[in-house]
């Protein structure tokens, strides 16, 4: 119905006399094509299907030679340039497949449905040579309707219909050589590179692949030393090196040079005597060994592996009896000073002791018979270890006290000792001295040679404390670090509430002292006999010319008291207008009332738009309030208007009216007017040089409105669609 209304409106604007005989059948289409798809090919008659009973006939099909308009373009067979016709191709090798004609002009293929048409083209292609016509054949197609082209038209064994064979040619013209052949050769993996292959790892190919051979007799393809070409040898793992199924002694072809000679071991000590046989493995491991090194095969304790002992026998078969390194041989030590204690640094090993040697090895000085483990330790200047216990003098707990001296503790390391703490020692111990006159061994600054200082301590150990060294201090009652010269105390350190300074001019006020900052308080804060000069807490006052309580921050004066016409609060952006200051309320007036650098933020005005008709009557449409938003742009929705009647036009022509739909335009002066069409073809908007034509339904249209304050409580407006 909306389309009909638009049509009616346009007709009225154009001056139509009426709608004539237009009815619903004409508007809706008396014979619309069906949208059903009866043959299920994805096309309906409305989509262009010219035969909806045949799924192979529709706009998506390709034209073929069958006297049917397959693609529904009203062209059939040879009349349709898009047809899939019968293709005639030159077949030079007579194998039934044509060539594509890339290098012979007469071999260009011909496409046609009608054989006569194809014949005439073939004659033209061959230059009139009728003998060549016998070499043309109809092309074959694959499953995707692509032409099967002969890739070698000089070899009848090469064409798309041939089977691939192992001959290095692309027999079936699929651009792949020797693929999928039926009788290739089987090759065997040769992982160890010994030219013998693994029968369990194969690959079928026309040529020998890398790493493969045509032999399959290798029994271990991970070891190049194992294959049918190797000689069998004796080894502990019983490997079948020649791949004949037998190994070592089981293989008659085993190399005799790799076999072992076996000997009888009568005393079962792993060393043999008489020879028995030669083979890879021990034929009787319980009684035979692979050596003949035993010098007495009747005694298991005598053999090359035995240990020589002091027993008058050659135990290890080396033809030497009881050598010095025999097991059980003793170690003997030289005793040069004949004190029965031997020197560990001079020794001899043998089954019996040599002359001048003893079994003891504890003498620390074999040149002095008074020094040995049995002697007594004493203090001596040479620090001799008399008792050979590796400690001497003070380091030896057994040193005789009668040979020691008395020393006194010096805990504070001031070289003066504590008479109440002593010890006996050969030499001065660490932390001890020979002096015993310190009166305080816990303080290094207190001793008989120290200087007396003011610290309530007898520093020089003379029995007197702080004699002649105290200081005078002054009371600081206001705790400002400056004291009262009239209130003193003598002490080594300042008593609580006292300082060393005596220059405070008022010891009852902590804001008054020499060098104090001067303040606006009618006092001499810095004790210089002047009051409030150069005060640090002066106030900066701003001039308030419009007397609104806010001053101009650019015009200021600093002082303790406010000058006339100045206030403490600044920030006034217009000091000539009492209604403009940081405390004012923002109103819609294009002025920054509250001095926040934003204009008319958060304000609004009501839109009243006058729509004028050509009869001089005015209709006011009141829209919703538009709140400020940067440029005061918003959305305007007129309410309460269902239509505007305009009658008795003074511009000539028939009376006209608008019920629901009307055209609006905006004049250069900002008025919104209703457009009208005149008998001479002009319009009201055109005659008023109006712009921004708006087509609108008055009860729903969304119009963009820009509002500007007129400073009189109203807003000027511009409407656009």
Detailed description of the structure:
This protein has 721 residues and is mostly beta strands. The chain is built from four helices and 33 strands. It has helices at 2-14, 24-28, 115-125, 684-687, and strands at residues 86-90, 110-112, 136-138, 140-141, 147-148, 185-189, 198-205, 212-213, 260-264, 275-279, 288-289, 330-334, 343-350, 357-358, 405-409, 418-425, 432-433, 471-475, 484-491, 498-499, 539-543, 552-559, 566-567, 604-605, 608-612, 618-622, 626-627, 633-636, 661-666, 672-674, 691-697, 703-709, 715-720. A five-stranded mixed sheet has the order 26-25-30-29-31. Strands 2-1-3 form a three-stranded antiparallel sheet, covered by helices on one side. Strand 18 and strand 19 form a beta hairpin. It is flat, with a radius of gyration of 65 Å. Residues 1-31, 605-662 and 692-721 have low confidence and may be disordered.
What is the compact description of this entry?
5% of the residues lie in helices and 21% in strands. The protein contains 4 helices and 33 strands.
**Percent range for helical residues?**
under 10%
| Assembly annotation | single chain
The gross shape turns out to be flat
- Rounded radius of gyration (Å): 65 Å
Main sheet record: 5 strands, mixed
Number of helices: 4
What is the rounded distance between the termini?
23 Å
* Average pLDDT score: 76
Q: Beta-strand percentage?
A: 15-25%
Class of secondary structure makeup: mainly beta
Low-confidence stretches: 1-31, 605-662, 692-721
Strand sequence of the main sheet, in spatial order?
Answer: 26-25-30-29-31
């Amino acid at each position: 119905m909306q389309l009909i209304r638009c049509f009616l409106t346009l007709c009225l604007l154009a001056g139509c006399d009426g709608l004539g005989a237009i009815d619903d059948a004409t508007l809706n289409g008396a014979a619309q094509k069906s949208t059903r798809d009866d043959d299920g090919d994805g096309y309906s008659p409305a989509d262009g299907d010219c035969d909806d009973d045949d799924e192979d006939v529709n706009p998506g099909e390709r034209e073929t030679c069958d006297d049917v308009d397959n693609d529904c373009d009203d062209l059939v067979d040879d009349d349709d340039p898009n047809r899939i016709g019968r293709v005639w191709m030159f077949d030079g090798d007579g194998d039934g497949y044509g060539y594509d004609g890339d290098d012979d002009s007469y071999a260009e293929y011909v496409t046609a449905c009608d054989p006569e048409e194809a014949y005439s083209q073939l004659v033209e292609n061959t230059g009139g040579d009728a003998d060549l016509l016998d070499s043309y054949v109809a092309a074959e197609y694959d499953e995707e309707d692509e032409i099967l082209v002969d890739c070698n038209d000089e070899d009848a064994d090469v064409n798309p219909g041939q089977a691939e064979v192992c001959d290095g040619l692309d027999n079936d013209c699929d651009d792949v050589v020797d693929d999928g052949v039926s009788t290739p050769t089987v090759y065997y993996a040769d992982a160890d590179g010994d030219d013998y292959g693994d029968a369990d790892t194969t690959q079928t190919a026309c040529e020998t692949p890398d790493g493969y051979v045509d032999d399959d007799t290798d029994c271990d393809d991970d070891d190049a030393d194992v294959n049918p070409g190797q000689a069998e040898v004796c080894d502990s793992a019983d490997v079948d090196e020649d791949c004949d199924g037998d190994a070592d002694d089981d293989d008659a072809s085993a190399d005799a040079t790799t076999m072992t000679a076996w000997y009888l071991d009568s005393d079962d000590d792993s060393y043999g005597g008489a020879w028995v046989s030669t083979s890879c493995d021990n034929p009787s491991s319980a009684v035979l060994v692979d050596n003949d090194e035993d010098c007495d095969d009747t005694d298991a304790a005598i053999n090359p592996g035995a240990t020589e002992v002091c027993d008058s026998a050659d135990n290890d078969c080396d033809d030497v009896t009881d050598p010095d390194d025999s097991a059980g041989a003793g170690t003997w030590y030289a005793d040069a000073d004949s004190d029965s204690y031997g020197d560990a640094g001079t020794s001899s090993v043998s089954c019996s002791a040599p002359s001048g040697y003893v079994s003891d090895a504890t003498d620390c000085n074999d040149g002095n018979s008074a020094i040995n483990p049995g002697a007594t330790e004493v203090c001596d200047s040479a620090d001799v270890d008399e008792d050979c216990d590796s400690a001497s003098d003070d380091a030896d707990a057994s040193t005789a006290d009668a040979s020691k001296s008395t020393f006194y503790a010096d805990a504070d390391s001031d070289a003066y000792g504590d008479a109440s703490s002593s010890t006996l020692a050969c030499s001065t111990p660490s932390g001890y001295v020979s002096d015993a006159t310190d009166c305080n061994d816990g303080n290094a600054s207190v001793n008989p040679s120290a200087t007396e200082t003011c610290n309530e301590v007898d520093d020089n150990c003379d029995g007197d404390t702080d004699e002649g060294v105290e200081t005078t201090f002054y009371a600081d009652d206001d705790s400002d670090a400056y004291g009262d010269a009239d209130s003193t105390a003598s002490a080594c350190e300042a008593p609580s509430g006292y300082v060393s300074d005596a220059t405070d001019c008022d010891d009852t006020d902590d804001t008054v002292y020499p060098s104090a900052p001067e303040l606006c308080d009618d006092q001499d804060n810095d004790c210089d006999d002047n009051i409030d000069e150069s005060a640090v807490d002066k106030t900066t006052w701003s001039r308030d010319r419009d007397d609104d309580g806010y001053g101009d921050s650019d015009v200021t004066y600093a002082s303790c008291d406010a000058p006339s016409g100045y206030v403490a609060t600044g920030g006034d952006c217009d000091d000539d207008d009492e209604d403009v200051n940081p405390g004012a309320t923002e109103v819609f007036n294009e002025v920054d009332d509250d001095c926040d650098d934003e204009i008319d933020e958060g304000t609004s005005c009501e839109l009243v738009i006058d729509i004028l008709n050509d009869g001089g009557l005015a209709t006011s449409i009141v829209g919703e309030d538009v709140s400020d938003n940067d440029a005061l742009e918003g959305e305007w929705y007129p309410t309460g208007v269902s239509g505007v009647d305009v009658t008795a036009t003074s511009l000539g022509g028939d009376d006209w009216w608008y019920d629901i739909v009307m055209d609006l335009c905006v004049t250069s002066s900002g008025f919104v007017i209703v457009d009208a069409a005149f008998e001479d073809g002009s319009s009201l908007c055109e005659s008023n040089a109006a712009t921004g034509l708006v087509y609108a339904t008055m009860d729903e249209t969304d119009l963009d409105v820009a509002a500007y304050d007129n400073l009189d409580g109203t807003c000027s407006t511009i409407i656009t669609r």
